[in-house]
Amino acid sequence: MADDGPWRADKTTCKQYSENEDDGSGFVIWLDGYNRQKSGKPGSVLESDDTLKAYLDACAKQPEALMIDVMRESAK
User: What is the DSSP string of the chain?
Assistant: First the structure.
């Protein structure tokens, strides 16, 4: 894992993503895989367009939250 830069599982907030969604789209894909590996659960926010939209909407409502925390709540 990188020690600097905007895209880090343990530091990237929803606000940082919303400020640069085009650059962050690949990060969402990576973060989903990272979350599934760390949690050991198959739940994915990339399961469908609806689950991805629900995750991004939840993230937009919590700008100061870490993206990984919102993802853990969204991917059950």
Answer: --SSSS--TTT-BHHHHHHTHHHHHHHHHHHHHHHHHHH-----TTSSHHHHHHHHHHHHT-TTSBHHHHHHHH--
Burial of 35 (0-12, 13-18, 19+ CB in 10 A): buried
Percent of the chain scored above 90 by pLDDT? 72
Q: Rounded to an integer, what is the distance from CA 30 to the centroid of its chain?
A: 8
Closest Cα partner for 55 from 30, 29, 35, 74? Answer: 74
Q: What is the pLDDT of residues 30-67, one digit of tens each?
A: 999 999 999 888 889 999 999 999 999 999 999 999 99
pTM of the model: 0.88
Task: Please state whether 65 falls in left (phi above 0), alpha (psi between -120 and 50) or beta.
Answer: beta
